[in-house]
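Hi there,

I know you've been waiting on this one. I reran it after we fixed the sequence typo, so this is the corrected version. Both the input and the resulting structure follow.
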Amino acid sequence: MGELARGMRGGRRAELAAARLLVSGIAVTVVISSITTFVVADPQGRVELPGWFSVVTGAAFAVLVVVGAASAWVGVGALRVGAAAGVAIFFLALVLFAPASGVLDGTATAGTVPWALTAVGGFAVAAVVAGGAGLGWAAILAWAGLVAAYRVALGGYSMTGLANDAQALMTGATLCLISAHVLRVSRELDATAGRVNAVVAEQGAARGRLAARARVASFVHDDVLAALRGASEAVVGSAEAVRLQARRATAVIAVETEPDDWIDRLRVLADEAGAHFTVERVARAVAPGEHVMDAVVVAARQALDNSVRHAGTCTRSVRLEVGGAGLVLWIVDDGVGFSAHSMAPGRLGIATSIEGAMRDLAGGDARVASAPGRGTTVELRWDEESGPDDHFAEPPSFRRPVFSLPGVLAIAALFVLTQTLVAAVAVVADPGAGWWPLTVLAGILAATALVLPIPPGRASRGVAVVVVLGVTILGGLLATPPPLTYGSAWFIPAAGFVLVAVAFDARPALAVVGLVPLLLLPVADAFVRGGDLTQIVSIVVRTATIVGLGALFAASIVRMRRSTRAFARRAASATQQREWDRAAQHEIEDRRAELDELAGPLLARVASGEQLSADDRAHARALEGRLRDGYRAGRLLHPPLIEAAVRARTRGVDVVLLDDAGQAEIDAVAAAAIAEWMRGVVDEAHDRFVGRLLPPGRATAAQVVVDGSARNFPG
């Protein structure tokens, strides 16, 4: 857990995962491009280049492959530096192509730009990793300008060159949009995780303090109050029992001595109460944190103590079930039971030590069911899924990648522009083809229109896109005279971009299914009508790369978000536990110090067996009331009133202070005025004083009963 918390404090967990994902994708792209360049690409018509130029170009590819291979072991900074180095070397090669080919001095002969220099997609992603979306788009624009200038200098565009550059431009632009989106989302995830971490840290500390107070309240209620009450009453024959109770109370104030294992602690409590104890745990049971264990033990102790004190002679049982996502503890007896209406107001045992201990716990709950003559059942529950994870509300973007509308429209416009240009040139270049290129373009644009609407559509729409593309590609192949070339089959890679959109509509599997006919149809055409293997492989590789990377990134984004969310949840739990421990420890130490200062000396005297005087017993009675005030008086805990109550108890007056206003908000000034009014009245009491802060909406804000006479607050 410590490593998780440190990872979250680093604040870049999701960004690191995203950068690793992108550079790994770059490495795959570069390897494919390298294979295509040196093995598959048609060497005919290439410009003659010196050997050193191939070394520079190969170095650019090699750097990105190395960075991708090492991505699992390096941080964000190293990934950025490696990506920047690959981009710099690639553009160095692009610039050096001018002197290497003779374009710079005018000695160049007609030829084509090397295929490696047109494989800009991976380098566009690397530019985004290195410097963000701005650098990515700048790299694409610089590449487009240089390649276009080289094409013109080397004799102009052929159909194949135009189709290649158009698809390369679309590949770069699409991957730039995707990679920028991935990094942006990862930073948003890190920021969200950081905010959640801060929230759960604050809540962990707050709940730790509350749980510690409940824990202190439990042993105060169980031991200290009982010892002080026994000391104040001095009942004949009870001296030894009171001494033992006081000894236990002083030991609790000094340090709690309990078994380390929480289940052993429950077993000890059950044995002391004479209850049958059973445990049931599943194979992969949840491991509750220390704050959960303490809360359950505190509540169970009080429930068993109540049963021993009030249930009479009966059978008791304690049953613990620990499941994969939470736990349930039942404390059951078949004793006399009680009615909820008969419970005294402000009773501490159930309200503070049972219900309070569990409900102050994230995911905790407590239920007490009883009826006269039917026994009592106490049910304690804790659900792990109701913990820090509540802050990670899962937006739709966790289920599907959602791009900004301007970015989607920009890519769509670029796609329409480039593919329309290629189709128009195809019509002009081959008049015998008639209007088929434009008809194929219409089918591709129709499929694009189906996948573009926002928000994302249903699966049936994705299926329709795949069907339209399949029919369109089949018709285009039948209308295109053999043998196929990369230029004449431009519409196959174009269809691949539409499948990328399908993948990012949360249908990566469907996109891969749609890719199958795009790959099989040109291969089948080559076997049936004859074709150039090099050209067919070039078509298939470019199309598979486009769709494969799109589907990979789409699936990886969703998985990355989910895994980052799970990591953030675990880290938040670790942070909450750490802050709970720290706050609880401080709270317990502070409360014990206060308790020791207030009641420690008197309890030590009682524990030693010393006989108390009448004044000492009056002091014990006053201390007991003072401690009860700490849990019942609520907003009446104003020092002047508390001091007056202690004086009255020392005189023998039974003083009860109750905050019955519940969760209602009461102005602090008004509460102080009520406490000051009660302070003046309590000094008049001789036998009994009950002061109540009443809920809003009553005819009066507060009421006191002094020796049987009621008075209402005059405010």
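Quick highlight: Residues 1-10, 255-259, 387-401 have pLDDT under 50 and may be disordered.

Best,
R. S.
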